[in-house]
RNA sequence: CGGGGCGUAGCGCAGUUUGGUAGCGCGCUUGGUUCGGGACCAAGAGGCCGCGGGUUCAAAUCCCGCCGCUCCGACCA
């Protein structure tokens, strides 16, 4: 791990206790992750396996994501709507490949009101089926197109192995479902929304991603083509951060979604669907976090700064009054700032608490600062301190937050680049996947046989076929035949 | 679904080998002194010992069954 154990970081004895609270990444990355989500109060386990409560601090992050994504969805012409939780089983079964893909993990309701239902209801694992059923009635004319709708909802997938945020039986997400007149328009929409995800991830979440197409094997059940953005976590494993599907006319045909075109002929629509989920909270944790806990990028952080007053017997009221005045002023200037004026906790305790929770900036105000009309600013990511006069704060704070945001992105990008190998033969590929992991860029013949062989022997899968990467080698890394594509391999969550 | 680990106070654990009616640290409550990197003192509150059955005068402890969590492997956002 790049981040050193906190016990060696600053040479303070107290850090030992800290290590006991959150398992260091280098000791056990999975345990570190669990410790972080529980101790920072992002979630709590539910009595039902694979389910969880998203606690206020975690939900605040989700709300921030929703806000920033909604803005983008609306800018690209989409409207929000809501569709039902229950899907008649018969509807889900219409698209053969779709049902095959999802049947193993659906929850089925067979009873209601104390009586056996005449037809079982599926709890939506995704909403293509129910939405297509509506769309077949809503769309009549070419004038009804394009239809651009998104919904925010929960979905249920009966997963065998679960992990908070990354893979839960129930999760929150958004799913966009659009209909278009032409294949080209649908393809353009699919790629546009993938671009929206990439932009959101990189600009707001400070998470660099590789964008590309999924291999045939990894394609969404029922889709023509699936596109993806893939991030790299700090343990070298990849995470599918968002997907965008060109559904072609597969669903339109079985659900009979047709429109009368200008040339007086009846045509099937071309569809897309795309989604991101609360899994992104997991990505946020794993891309930026360190041994002390979360590090939240300022644009997505529910709290961008926390002000800790340091009071002493003789300067108590004065310090608190100045802190309140400053806090109000900065909140008024649009900074998401909390004044932590709780009594009974020492400043050191508060420092550690907010560091663990990943608040990007800390503002200290004590008797010495009061006299000099200044504060001490401390960055969560680097620990760097600076003193800033009160009058400068409204200017300095936004700048510093922006710098921090950029630094987090740059740090994550550098990590991803360092952990992206290209070239090398199959043996080297196997070794990399066994040891340091990360991305391995290689040429591939395009045959599923090789994809499966690589997976079996390395546990790595083809994460995506990137849009903008030149093929460096002429032959498939697995079989040595003439290569058709360049692909990113990685072990994935 | 296969393999390992763990279920005792909110959290972390001891107690289980050898049965005798539950303890420690942190946290929590109240009062006081403190406050520039996890403060201190005092007094308190808090337990179906995962669930069900069995053995026994007596079970956290022994036996049988089940459930849950977690980690590692095959599927998914």
TL;DR?
The chain is α+β, with helices and mostly antiparallel strands.
Structural class: alpha+beta
How helix-rich are the residues, as a percent range? Answer: 25-40%
The termini sit apart by: 18 Å
Rg over CA atoms, rounded to whole Å, is 25 Å
Explain what the structure shows.
This protein has helices spanning 6-9, 15-21, 29-39, 56-75, 89-92, 96-102, 128-138, 183-203, 250-255, 279-288, 316-332, 347-356, 367-372, 393-418, 426-434, 448-458; strands spanning 43-45, 52-54, 79-80, 86-88, 107-112, 115-123, 147-156, 170-180, 210-213, 225-232, 238-248, 258-260, 266-268, 270-277, 305-309, 337-339, 361-365, 374-379, 385-389, 420-422, 439-444, 461-466, 485-490. The chain is α+β, with helices and mostly antiparallel strands. The chain has an 11-stranded mixed beta sheet. It has a 5-stranded mixed beta sheet with strand order 16-15-17-18-19, sandwiched between helices. Strand 15, helix 11 and strand 16 (337-339) form a beta-alpha-beta unit. 41% of the residues are buried. Mean pLDDT is 92; it is low at 1-20. The protein binds one RNA strand of 77 nucleotides through residues 10, 12, 14, 17-18, 20-21, 28, 30-31, 34, 38-39, 45, 47, 49, 101-102, 104-105, 125-126, 155, 157, 159-161, 166-167, 171, 173, 239-243, 275-280, 308-313, 316, 343-353, 355, 364, 366-369, 376, 459, 493.
Short key terms for the protein model shown above:
single chain, alpha+beta, 26% strand, 5-stranded mixed sheet, RNA-binding, 493 residues
Task: Describe how the helices and strands are arranged.
Blueprint: H1 6-9, H2 15-21, H3 29-39, E1 43-45, E2 52-54, H4 56-75, E3 79-80, E4 86-88, H5 89-92, H6 96-102, E5 107-112, E6 115-123, H7 128-138, E7 147-156, E8 170-180, H8 183-203, E9 210-213, E10 225-232, E11 238-248, H9 250-255, E12 258-260, E13 266-268, E14 270-277, H10 279-288, E15 305-309, H11 316-332, E16 337-339, H12 347-356, E17 361-365, H13 367-372, E18 374-379, E19 385-389, H14 393-418, E20 420-422, H15 426-434, E21 439-444, H16 448-458, E22 461-466, E23 485-490
Parallel strand pairs: 3-7, 15-16, 15-17, 20-21
Antiparallel strand pairs: 1-2, 4-6, 5-6, 7-8, 8-14, 9-10, 9-22, 10-11, 11-14, 12-13, 17-18, 18-19, 21-23, 22-23
Helix pairs in contact: 4-8
The protein binds one RNA strand of 77 nucleotides through helix 2, helix 3, strand 11, strand 14 and helix 12.
